[in-house]
Amino acid sequence: MQITVDLDLCESHGSCVFAAPEIFSFDDDDHLLYEAAPDDGLRADAEKAAASCPVRAITVAAP
Amino acid sequence: MSAAGHPRDVVIVGASLAGLRAAETLRAEGFTGNLTLVGAEQHAPYDRPPLSKRFLTGQPPAADTALPVPDGLRACWRLGQAAVRLDPYSRIVTLADGTGLPYDGLLIATGAAARSGAAPGEPGPEQGVFTLRGRDDATALRAALTPGRKLLVVGAGFLGGEVAAAGRALGLDVTLVEAGSVPLVRAVGAEVGAFVRTLHREAGIDLRTGTTVAAYRAGPDGRLTGARLTDGRTVAADVAVLALGAVPATGWLAGSGIEAAGGVRTDSRLRALFPDGSAVPGVVAAGDAARVPQPLAGGAAPALGHWSGAVEQGAAAARTLLRGEAAPVFAEVPSFWSDVHGVRLRSVGLPALADTVKVHECDREARRLEVSYHLHGRLVGALTIGRTSRLAAYRRTLAECRP
Predict the structure, then answer these.
(1) How far away is chain A from the Cα of B331, in angstroms, using its nearest Cα?
(2) How many Cα atoms sit within 13 Å of B24 on the Cβ side?
(3) CATH superfamily to which B342-400 belongs
(4) Topology, domain B116-244
(5) By C-alpha distance, which of B340, B333, B332, B335 is closest to B386?
(6) CB B80 within 8 A of CB B39
(7) How far is B192 from chain A (nearest CA, A)?
(8) Which residue from B97, B126, B261, B303 lies 20 to 30 Å from A57 (Cα-Cα)?
(9) For residue B193, which of B371, B51, B49 has the smallest C-alpha distance?
(10) Is A8 on the interface with B (CB under 8 A)?
(11) How far is residue B34's CA from residue B242's CA, in Å, rounded to a whole number?
(12) How far apart are alpha carbons B235 and B205 in whole angstroms?
């Protein structure tokens, strides 16, 4: 599974961090860090993260 | 009923965020029947949070608040048609033009309306007095917010604070009037309220607390010139925005027998309830129109009106329509955000429940704040400014530690 985040859109709402903490996290300054190729077992969380992003910055694609 | 026990005809009343997410979920989870989306507004689904933020200030990408509608939704759209009646026994929704839509699955997602507080005969948009809920409201307000004018915002809640901040950013003189002793006190407590009060004042907003509008004043042409406040002082204003909260838009359910006062009360799978607590067959509710039991509130069902609630409940209600009792119980931790003066307030849980607020960090210089909310010694929420990174841990605790 391939995760892409459009960092020009990202406003650090953190909804993805709530939905999929094994893929998305923040540094101390609320900058987004994420796993670009997480395990397929996390797909449901990844899709939830994409759906819950208020600015629709996240794309989940098959590898 | 078709194969797998799915309904055949699903009607979604409300073509905004919750309704759209429900429609997407229905199709994603294999619903092949007829899908109708009913919307009171002419607009295709659009996103509301920007309307009190960048939509007003015009910074790109301002104009486009449309929500993407996925290919393959195969929905029949009835836009510009409000639903006016529901008969849950013969299972028919009636639209304003008299059309009857039969259903075997119905989602109520009609959202909320601005509480105007205005008495009949009081000034409206033509005279310069606005409310803000939909895109048409925002378009009209944006046209009125021209630099140099005087803006009066009534109500320093999240919406009022955002509109006041937008007005200031656009170069208007802004007076913000709040009935409480500090902004936001009932929602998130005096500590956060005091922090936000400082932000408003630093931005040059004339914040007046402990008072509200007693009467509006108009010139000979009928246009707003100002207001007299209940503390006896007066405010000059060319434009006023009433930001007095929202009320669930459930008036069309009067006479249906469904419990809809202050929002459609649901069970933990988003099924709409009759007053006796029994589920209305085939009917679910989601988003601002719904009152969903909150585990953090001991199962009480407050009307919340959060963006994330519309997203999560729309999807969950769709799953209940497809799977009934086998659908998961809804137990998402509520969350919301608000943007004022270039900072983000971000919250998880239910801060309004708290009897105790703990301040973990308060740095006005760096514009950082971290507070947690507790009821009877138990965590019920948290809020940060400039520290969203701290919220994930709180949210995890809130999701795990259920009463």
Answers:
(1) 13
(2) 21
(3) FAD/NAD-linked reductase, C-terminal dimerisation domain (3.30.390.30)
(4) FAD/NAD(P)-binding domain (3.50.50)
(5) B340
(6) yes
(7) 19
(8) B303
(9) B371
(10) no
(11) 40
(12) 13
CATH class of A2-61: alpha beta
| Same fold: B3-113+247-326 with B342-400 | no
B147 within 8 A of B170, measured Cβ to Cβ: yes
Longest dimension (CA), chain A: 31
| Each residue's pLDDT tens digit, B34-44 | 999 999 999 99
Measure the CA–CA gap between B241 and B152, rounded to whole angstroms: 6
DSSP B67-109: PPPPTT---EEEET--EEEEETTTTEEEETTS-EEE-SEEEE-
Looking at this protein, which amino acid is placed at residue B362?
C
The total number of residues written for chain A in this structure: 63
DSSP B46: B
Reading the block at residue B258, the tokens are 């469904």
B48 touches chain A (CB under 8 A): no
Q: Which two tokens stand for residue B329?
A: 């119980």
Backbone angles phi, psi at B173, to 5 degrees: -80, 125
**pLDDT tens digits for range B230-249:** 999 999 999 999 999 999 99
pTM: 0.96
For residue B396, what is the nearest residue in chain A, using CA coordinates?
Answer: A18
Residue that is written with structure tokens 């914040």 in the block: B207
Q: Would you list the domain boundaries of chain B?
A: 3-113+247-326, 116-244, 342-400
Question: Residue B258's Cα: distance from chain center in Å?
Answer: 22
- How confident is the model over B249-257, as a mean pLDDT? 97
- Domain B3-113+247-326 top-level CATH class: alpha beta
Cβ proximity of A1 and A20 under 8 Å = no
Say if the ipTM goes beyond 0.90: yes
Q: How far apart are CA B83 and CA B96, in angstroms?
A: 6
